[in-house]
């Protein structure tokens, strides 16, 4: 393989990579999306299928993406181009790198707006606004907040400014330092909230709902939803894991690190469910509230409980921490490419990428108010970007990563990077990444395209 044209800094240790990659994976998908999908799809039955998908699909693709990143030691675009050249494969494989970088960029444009809501609710939840509030009142407050464009722009700008600042500080001074402190703090806050939920009066019911599978509730749609959530929750197919892998020292085990990251991601999702559902049941609310579960339903629960304002503030601080560690990973591939191909300093690359993302994010910010009537194909800017990335670009990117690692990259190179002591483990990974994982992601992709007749 040709030498990389641009050498990046590296993580200082395996734990630094695990914290950073876990921060990339752990985000709104774990604390916002996982609970409401579990609520909508039968609780424990959904969780069981989700866990199986993490093992059979998520971990093999995460190993593959990290492997490619460390092998190429460049941004996803240049990594795919150089690895394809070394393998004498089509130069068009570089577009798989472009797909990931653009997907991450587009996701951050709306991710920043939603994360801004969490920042705002850190202050809102500790006020008297939610004391004794009912469902209609909570929904009305949330709708008023979303429909005020000034609020959307302010919080979107603050969150993006925080993201730019962290990324501009570099690998060790920014990405590593932020995740080193935020990830343990996130886990500690989740643990405190779980203890709080244990004393809410609905913990036994919440545990039963989340952890006891009722196989009669497993449906085809639920299986596909679990498969999609397992894939998207790990942050695969958007270039983040690949670029983080490019900073991984050669002596660090990719397999063990990927398993630890996937385990941490799954643990946070389950802990979030154990913090949320007991509060929901203790207050006689429905677990099937969909995307409004955090911003409309939970404030009702916190408003009814003793000390709810303080614990609500802690919860939304947790959401913010999860969001910011993911956002720096989403923008990092674009920053790395600008540094490599345009010769920009890291601070300039961060500022240019972040500013462009902020500008694009205004489309999402205005989708909930003054721009709600502006639609393409019957969808607002937010809905269109979400559909394009989550249901098309990420599944396609995941399939391409798996196919390249399993079929294009030579066995010699993948074995050298993974260094699995037991040959059986390598064979199992190769079967999963060549056949099982691409087939699973392809099913999600075809389902999202409506080809299963739903």
Helices and strands in order:
Blueprint: H1 14-25, H2 28-40, H3 44-72, H4 76-86, H5 94-124, H6 135-146, H7 149-168, H8 171-198, H9 203-211, H10 220-233, H11 240-245, H12 254-282, H13 297-304, H14 308-341, H15 346-365, H16 381-408, H17 411-418, H18 423-448
Helix pairs in contact: 1-8, 1-12, 1-14, 2-10, 2-12, 3-4, 3-9, 3-10, 3-12, 3-16, 3-17, 3-18, 4-5, 5-7, 5-14, 5-15, 5-16, 7-8, 7-14, 7-15, 8-12, 8-14, 9-12, 10-18, 12-13, 13-14, 14-15, 16-18
Features:
454 residues; mainly alpha; 74% helix; 0% strand; globular; disordered N terminus
Short description:
By secondary structure, the protein is mostly helical. It has helices at residues 14-25, 28-40, 44-72, 76-86, 94-124, 135-146, 149-168, 171-198, 203-211, 220-233, 240-245, 254-282, 297-304, 308-341, 346-365, 381-408, 411-418, 423-448.
| Average pLDDT reading | 88
CATH architecture: Orthogonal Bundle
Helix content: over 70%
CATH class: Mainly Alpha
Quaternary organisation of the protein chains: single chain
**SSE series:** HHHHHHHHHHHHHHHHHH
User: Whole-Å distance between the termini?
Assistant: 46 Å
Number of helices: 18
Can you tell me the residue ranges where pLDDT is under 50 for at least 5 consecutive residues?
Answer: 1-5
């Amino acid at each position: 393989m040709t030498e990389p044209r641009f050498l990046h800094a590296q993580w200082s240790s395996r734990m630094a990579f695990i914290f950073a990659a876990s921060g990339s994976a752990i985000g709104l998908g774990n604390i916002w999306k996982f609970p409401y999908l579990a609520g909508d799809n039968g609780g424990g039955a959904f969780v069981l299928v989700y866990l199986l998908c993490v093992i059979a699909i998520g971990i093999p693709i995460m190993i593959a993406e990290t492997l490619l990143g460390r092998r190429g030691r460049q941004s996803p675009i240049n990594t795919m181009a150089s690895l394809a050249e070394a393998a004498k494969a089509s130069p068009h494989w570089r577009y798989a790198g472009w797909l990931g970088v653009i997907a991450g960029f587009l996701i951050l444009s709306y991710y920043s707006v939603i994360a801004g809501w969490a920042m705002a609710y850190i202050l809102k939840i500790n006020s008297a606004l939610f004391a004794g509030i009912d469902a209609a009142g909570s929904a009305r407050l949330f709708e008023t907040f979303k429909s005020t464009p000034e609020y959307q722009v302010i919080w979107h700008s603050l969150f993006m400014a925080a993201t730019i600042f962290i990324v501009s500080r570099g690998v060790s001074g920014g990405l590593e330092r932020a995740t080193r402190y935020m990830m343990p703090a996130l886990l500690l806050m989740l643990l405190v909230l779980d203890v709080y939920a244990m004393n809410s009066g609905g913990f036994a019911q919440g545990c039963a709902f989340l952890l006891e599978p009722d196989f009669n509730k497993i449906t085809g749609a639920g299986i596909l939803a679990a498969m999609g959530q397992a894939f998207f929750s790990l942050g695969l197919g958007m270039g983040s894991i690949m670029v983080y892998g490019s900073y991984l020292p050669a002596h660090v085990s990719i397999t063990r690190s990927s398993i630890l990251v996937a385990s941490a991601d799954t643990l946070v999702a389950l802990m979030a469910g154990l913090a949320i559902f007991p509060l929901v049941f203790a207050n006689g609310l429905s677990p099937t509230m969909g995307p409004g579960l955090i911003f409309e339903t939970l404030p009702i629960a916190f408003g009814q409980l003793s000390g709810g304002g303080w614990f609500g503030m802690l919860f939304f601080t947790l959401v913010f921490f999860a969001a910011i560690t993911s956002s720096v990973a989403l923008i990092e591939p674009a920053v790395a490419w600008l540094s490599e191909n345009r010769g920009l300093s890291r601070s300039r690359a961060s500022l240019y990428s972040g500013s462009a993302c902020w500008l694009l994010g205004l489309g999402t910010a205005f989708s909930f108010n003054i721009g709600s009537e502006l639609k393409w194909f019957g969808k607002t800017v937010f809905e269109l970007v979400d559909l394009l990335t989550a249901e098309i670009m990420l599944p396609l990117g995941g399939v391409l990563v798996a196919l390249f690692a399993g079929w294009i990259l030579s066995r010699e190179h993948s074995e050298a990077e993974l260094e699995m002591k037991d040959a059986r483990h390598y064979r199992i990974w190769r079967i999963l990444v060549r056949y099982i994982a691409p087939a699973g992601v392809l099913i999600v992709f075809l389902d999202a395209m409506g080809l299963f007749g739903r």
